[in-house]
Amino acid sequence: xxxxxxxxxxxxxxxxxxxxxxxxxxxxxxxxxxxxxxxxxxxxxxxxxxxxxxxxxxxxxxxxxxxxxxxxxxxxxxxxxxxxxxxxxxxxxxxxxxxxxxxxxxxxxxxxxxxxxxxxxxxxxxxxxxxxxxx
Length: 135
Fold this sequence. Notes:
mainly alpha; Rossmann fold
């Protein structure tokens, strides 16, 4: 991610926005997901550092931190009984779909204009799922 952001910089003008994807696991990790949670926490940290560094160039950097999302990793990394229960405790009773993240990610620059950098945005679903009041 760092190298991708670095490669993009020469092409970004003032007012541009970099939006990374983290996870609610960055804030309230499950013990069984320590490696995954650590990588997502690192994305939040890089986002905040880049936001500080790029603010003087007028480039904003933020991250979207969703809750449970149904991806091919779910059935590939969980026993069948856990897959059946995956995200059953969310308010909607289901995991989000990857395509449902697109509106959150693509609307961030329009919603926040020039007023937000170094921030994380979690969906209400993610916040309620993990009680992520730190977001």
